[in-house]
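The aim of this short unit is practical: by the end, you should be able to scan a pair of folded records and say something sensible about each. We start with the first protein, listed as its amino acid sequence and then its structure tokens.
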Amino acid sequence: MIGNLSGGEILLLVLAALVILGPARLPEYAAKLARGVRWVRDLAEGAKGQLKDELGPGFEEIDWRQLDPRQYDPRRIVREALSTPAEGGAAPGTEKPATRMAAVPGASSATARRGEVHDPTRATPYDTDAT
């Protein structure tokens, strides 16, 4: 699979190239394609070498697989974040319960930013100026 193309689609493109170009011009275009692929490969190797020179000796220590965007899995990230304790904090489940926010009409959102949670049995506070 190349990009979003499956094997069947690639085969269809090759057959279309055979029909459009014909057997006389196909070797010429195949050679051009091979030169283009070599040029792109040399370009990538040159960029990698330049990056290696500019980053210095610490370049080998970087785990590039960890930085691969294809490794991004939001479920795994959330699972890892919830399973490890916060820096300087207690382990999950051992922290003290949060204080409850009073149901005062017009209460500022600063109380919510302090980590207080809303009690669902009370009325929701709102700002009359904002509504």
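Turning to the second protein, read its sequence before its tokens, just as you did above.
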Amino acid sequence: MRLVLAAALSLPLLLAGGIGLARPVEPGYVPGVEDLPLMPGLTAPTNGAVVFDQPEGRIVESAAQGDVSADAINAFYSQTLPQLGWRAAGAGRWARDGERLEITATRDGTGSRAETMVRFVLRPQ
């Protein structure tokens, strides 16, 4: 009886917490990279980052999406990243303190269902 009661009381809490659902990260930073700002208009799932810490440095792969053009994304990061010590190292590529960052944006879908998927990959140089 106690098990049934505990399960009945827990179910609403689990559903309210969104178990299994990707919830957006609070506006601010790319998941997994605490000092990489997330462009306004993009959202990222809370579990959207894969992080590996190695002796050579960290490896982070993260993603975000939104109804923002790839040109606007490139412009945002071209203005923002140099202020954080990143230097351009090619189209969509950045370098800082022994790390390299690659940002790719691809548009998926058409019309009102189109979204841009943004992939962030941080690796040691």
